[in-house]
Amino acid sequence: MSLSRLWPFLVFLALGALLFAGVLMSGRENREAIPSPLIGKPAPGFALHLLHQPERMVTMDELRGEPFLLNVWGSWCPACRDEHPYIEALARSSKIRVVGFNWKDERQDALRWLQQFGDPYHLIVVDEEGGTAIDWGVYGAPETFLVDAEGIVRWKYIGPITPAVIESQLKPRLAELGVAL
After folding, report:
1. Which ranges of the sequence are coiled-coil (predicted)?
2. How many domains are there within the chain?
């Protein structure tokens, strides 16, 4: 068999190996694969309306003074339902403020979702157009940020918060800020 006839088969095998390696790597739960450039830097400023008081705006500066979690969610997000009981538990602990960041959602849909599943948030800001989310580097919902009292982003998690994430990642970062869950 000549090399010219073998060449397409070798290319096919190489592409198959690359595809197989990609499939194997995609199964890993590596949340650090998309690091946030905001870690260790001031949180992006914003002035957003409140979900429950749409006539009132809140700025990032108003949230400073004590650490808080900024939880990006939407009524359209199935994974947000999965993490919701854990967000509620964090809020109920009263150890850390949990600020909701309602992203690309209709106000009535968001209010109905909260009525159905519960509203654990200290307050909820609304980013209907998604411009502020871009400033924060949001890829999708849910995402959660830990912001310290000075307004510095200390941690970001992409995906639903789970008890394992709280234990292995969030608790140690909160302890660095003097907050014990």
Report:
1. none
2. 1
Residue 16 identity: G
Supply the pLDDT for residue 121. 97
pLDDT (0 to 100) of residue 31: 46
Residue 134 lies in a domain: yes
Instruction: Compute, in degrees rounded to 10, the torsion defined by CA atoms 133, 137, 143, 146.
Output: -100
Q: What tokens were used for 16?
A: 């198959």
Rounded Cα distance between 122 and 114, Å, is 13
Question: What is the value of pTM for the model shown?
Answer: 0.81
pLDDT of residue 7: 74
Ranges of residues in the chain with a pLDDT under 50 are: 27-33
Using alpha carbons, list the distances in angstroms from residue 58 to 30, 45, 50, 51: 34, 10, 7, 11
The closest alpha carbon to 84, from 162, 23, 18, belongs to: 162
Q: Is residue 26 part of a domain?
A: no
